[in-house]
Design goal:
Helices cover about 85% and strands about 0% of the residues. It is built from 16 helices and no strands.
Length: about 400
Amino acid sequence: MPNIVRKIFASLRYRNFRLFWIGQAISLIGTWMQSIGQAWLILKITDSPFLLGLIGAAQYMPILVLSVFAGSIVDRFPKRYLIILTQTVMALLALILWVLTAKGIVTYWHIFILAAFLGLATSLDVPARQAFMINLVGRDSLMNAIALNSTTFNVARLIGPAIAGLLIAKVGIATTFLLNGISFIPVIIGLLMIDIDGLPGRSGKKNVLEDVKEGLVYIKNNSAVFNVLMLMLIVSLFAINFNVVVPVYSKYVFHNNPEIFGLLMSSLGVGSIVGAILVALGSSHSPNPVFLVMGGVILSAFQMVIAFVTGLYPAMIVLFLIGFGAIIFTALSNTTIQLNTPDELKGRAMSVYSLVFMGVTPVGNLFIGGIADVIGIKTSIFIGGLLGLVPSIYYLRKFLKLKK
């Protein structure tokens, strides 16, 4: 048992990663609390799945448009300072939303504008944080660090929604935004204490467009990176739309109950935690592409199943399995891309990763929210899962043939 625990937490032996990890652990709980509070606030104001999807589009559209260019910035400047900047901006945006909501003057368009600014910050934050990881732990511990970070993310997904559901029911939605703003303080302090800046990994500098072209040409010519990114693009577009699917599913199947909404999101988080722990335990080996694709198959197939589930406990089990598949898919994808990319291109590679993982979310959100308004939430969820399952099976067969 002690050996298993040491394997799971192996990357915590690095002081800089410990500081980063502790701050993230606290901040992510606040992030999930705000995510739940914001979704509930939008449905309360508008009663529209489409408008909820539109907020997702506002938040992720800057990532779609700017993330590739953000990768050039990440490869030019010290990553630690970029992350401090983006985390500070995110904290201020949360506090603004708290003030507007607490005073009772918040409108849909306030939320829309703040979501767009959050997307701007995220477009730089995600590739910077991902590319910074290897500076904190080195290549040999990278997979473990990514898995442990994913575990933390999903423990927060477990704790944050549960707390948010109780706060919304007992105190009010505004408190979730206040606590999120405060939760950024530990991560900023941790970043200030880290003694590695994540300096650029190259000597010469080209213009931004040449940078972008260089990164894209490398991705195109590296089959391991290209195949993973193509699969991530399709699955993220149609199957990874939890910020719309779960709130709307909860609202229409379980009749607007915030406590049940919190339980459903927490079930997703528990499944992700179990998946991330399994990835951490296997982090001494290189990422297996077959296991990676199996994560996509599980995620997509059980999203189709959830469309037919109406009971609370069966829904929690299915969401557990969706979370389990999703984290295996995303953690192994992240590790595969980083280990197959040289340091001087890592910011640009991870910017494309954030593009296909998060940047296509606006289109996916609008797809799910839009067809849910027309043909119903259950049918839209089923179609999204099906569109993720077909390419996952295609790549599964492709990788199985390569292993023979």
